[in-house]
Amino acid sequence: MWKPERNSKKALYEQIADHLEQRISYGEFPPGSLLPSERKLAEQFEVNRSTVISAFAELRSLGIIESRTGSGTRVSTSKWGATPKHTPNWSRFAEGGNFLPNLPFLRRIREALGQDPSLIDFASGELSGDLAPTDEIAALMSRNAYTSYLGYDNPQGFTPLREALVQYLSNYRRIQATESSILITSGSQQSLFLITQCLLSPGDAVAIEDPSYCYSLPMFQSAGLRLFRLPVDNHGIQPEDIRVLYKKHRIKMVFLNPNYQNPTGTVLSVERRKRLLDIICELGLPVVEDDPYSLTSYEGVPPLPLKSMDTTGSILYIGSFSKIAASGLRIGWMVAPRSIVERLTDARQQMDFGLSIIPQQIAAQFLQSSYFGPHLESLRIQLQFKRDLLIESLEKELSGLIEYAAPEGGLHFWCKLIPDIPDAKLLEESIKQGIIFVPGSVYGSDSGYVRFTFARSKPEDIELGIAKFAKAIRRLME
Amino acid sequence: MWKPERNSKKALYEQIADHLEQRISYGEFPPGSLLPSERKLAEQFEVNRSTVISAFAELRSLGIIESRTGSGTRVSTSKWGATPKHTPNWSRFAEGGNFLPNLPFLRRIREALGQDPSLIDFASGELSGDLAPTDEIAALMSRNAYTSYLGYDNPQGFTPLREALVQYLSNYRRIQATESSILITSGSQQSLFLITQCLLSPGDAVAIEDPSYCYSLPMFQSAGLRLFRLPVDNHGIQPEDIRVLYKKHRIKMVFLNPNYQNPTGTVLSVERRKRLLDIICELGLPVVEDDPYSLTSYEGVPPLPLKSMDTTGSILYIGSFSKIAASGLRIGWMVAPRSIVERLTDARQQMDFGLSIIPQQIAAQFLQSSYFGPHLESLRIQLQFKRDLLIESLEKELSGLIEYAAPEGGLHFWCKLIPDIPDAKLLEESIKQGIIFVPGSVYGSDSGYVRFTFARSKPEDIELGIAKFAKAIRRLME
Ligand SMILES: Cc1ncc(COP(=O)(O)O)c(C=O)c1O
Ligand SMILES: Cc1ncc(COP(=O)(O)O)c(C=O)c1O
Description:
Aspartate Aminotransferase, domain 1, Aspartate Aminotransferase, domain 2, 13% strand, binds pyridoxal-5'-phosphate, transaminase activity (chains A, B), transcription (chains A, B), transcription regulation (chains A, B)
């Protein structure tokens, strides 16, 4: 939100006048429309009302606005609306198109975080700064040059990164890939976008987990897909449900997040994996395996991806740097049959012409460096530490009021509230108390569930945040 | 294209067997399908036929393929096709979706460049490495730290870059913007993608220049838009044509590239600009001004954008780093009314979650550094030098066979061939001679036009390339 500069040479009222003139010229306030009141603007700009009055006087003297007593201040129609001059109806364009807006809860969360940076953030699904390998990346950047080539790169992705991923996938995830079967994308997000936009057609039926990260993405509806649910219990989905949906709705693709699922944290059991693979092979049904979390397992050997057991080439595998290193690099990857990689490379050429090569170089170096293994080990330990802190705080503050199954990996904690409180009320009261989370309904679940991302908070904020959350709950239970 | 490694420890035939097994397991060759012949594969892999025969023997012994005399080699149905096992029909998915594939000529050009890196490249629309500010960017990168924050950034774009662009737009392009009216995108390409996907609806009519870069983008058709043409002469489009199209087809938006237009190099005359602005204000019709080239003008004061004259906020302005600095940074920007910026930010959140912050930091630093002005000056001189070299070579080799109007800015040279030679023939013969260009029909023009990008070649290759091109023409005229 724009505010005038306190230590500028330009007077506050002049800054405000210029700012308003610009917004008018951009069509935000069309000719004849009513401007917000002096009082409202003074609040917004954090200035005295008299400053806004001076700014209005200035604009009036320029013929840009007109005031009539009792009917407020309007954008002049003689200056801006001289008969043949029309500003496009931008709001109609903003409402047009195929692309659905983000869910109201997610927009509310973004807005609240923008307005109050002091909120304790259990909503943003990412690592805290100290968990990201910032020193390691800084060290790599100080040792390497990045500017030998700065032209358009292969839209399939920087070749050395694809080569580094072949090694990484083989060493860490037991997936045998070739560089030609890898597509580099802007996080897993863009892999999902490309699949839903370019491989499926409007009207196609697909199956997704319930609850699931996919529900938080209007992307699926924007592509015109019909969504069918695969309920998740403590061991993941029931593979037989896929067969039922296939028979009933001819689903064309299945989207799964089998390791430390977002939001529930569950891992699909080994026994169900086997049945799942049998069923999808029987049906010739492709599965998208979205796997950003498997390497975050807190203890023991991380679960392997489904893709490592995929002998028929039925799985499109998606990985990401976001949850194991740094989400701001925007590096993700897809492993797919070459025909699919070629198709998506061709399409993305239309969308963004590929990613910047500098972060791709950094990612390739980091994966191949001696930093990567130790970074992962320490990440896993610290995530476990934060999860334990969260559980401790929840048990202290909300014992008896919540139910959960503690996750063994991932960044999130899923829990059910026993008292019956509507999502929207709880979210608003929590914001008031200074803490924010994602209501479960964003992921398609019933009301009364909450996702806490504990990975993003400082350890000392976890206890404090849960205390604030508990206060919100107690308020609403009164 | 995959090839076995000559100096690997693994025998060539083993590498080939592994490679084929993998492609089979990925569903590229479904159970029962015919493999390419031994001879064909030997050619592709650049090995002796006997090596492929050994690889096939290996695969046969594993039960992966079956050969029958006289009917070639097939993927085994007993191993891969065991009744309940099916690989998804990937080719159907690759053909699905809304997104149209790239134009055949563009795919052919990409393929030819991939196969023969020694081709003299007059096709890729970008700067040569030595014209990009590589040393300057390297110097900035050695002085600055980039890792203080590596989390998810504002999907509207890195705030300091938007602030730097406010300055840049004001100083260099006389556009008054605020950071809240700027959206950072992956080159201008993504700005165009967001506009066509999110602000317009299938069936909407839009006007584009003829010829135009837009025709090279199936993006417009993929969004279901109906395209109407605004013919370009030596002074750009005729503004009155817009009114005609509006009356006839209710066009919803106009796409223009008024400064050193791609591909023709023309500049919309000042007098037509004024009429254009009057007409679009009269109709309340929004214009997308795609302006990657205006600062490349070889001499004098660069033409200002239409947006600098836009008093009604009717223009969505798009700029890019690609043609004035480095296309591989993938940095572009859009200036738009806040409601539009908000809408597109929300939508792009679904697509890629924003750009990597490191290239955005680099771009912000470069724009604000003392390198930027001098870099632009030297770029303009060197582009003029290359254009002159091209004209000299064309006059020497093809005098009387071509017609053109020399461009005063930009990276491209548009010319008409007087002899009547079909585009496809000329392209193939040129590739044979060792030079590649873009046929004019890619931009929607009639056959017989050629776009040469001279900015990308080394000076010494310009003369050589045109000599090769002339040879191709003479061959086809025989
Ligand atoms: C399951 C899952 N998939 C994909 C994503 C997208 O992340 P990114 O694009 O940063 O890789 C997320 C982020 O929360 C996620 O939880
Ligand atoms: C007129 C025009 N617009 C947009 C683009 C896309 O370039 P980028 O996405 O690299 O900015 C090009 C590239 O050739 C172009 O010529």
